[in-house]
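hey can u check if this looks right to u? its 122 residues, i copy pasted from the old doc so theres a chance i mangled smth
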Amino acid sequence: MSVQRLSIAPEYVSFYAAGRRNVDIPVHMDRQGIYVSDDCVNIPAEYWYDGDTHVTLGPYSEVAEAREPDSDTILNTPNQELILFDANEPQYAIARVPHAKTRIRVWLDHPFAPTNVTIAYR
């Protein structure tokens, strides 16, 4: 498994991590932050007009940060893959994961408009 680093600029200030396509996106209209369901993690991003959001995606053993994660959840990954996408982009990145349920941890450098996001899976 390898670490992927990418820069994205989602138009709708968030992107998603899911185990398959066509999932319901967890949202909250009155608050900002990370929202999770059994099938999807909704992750905030920098406003596209302010610049890119830099994302690191990889195995926990290679990308984990020292502090507590901003989100720690078990995600359904029935096809043994983790897909990063947004409302307009069908796939920013994809990673193979070993199980049909995958622990996902997310670290942000800002709670509502992060410029750096780390996503670790195990």
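The helical segments are 60-63.
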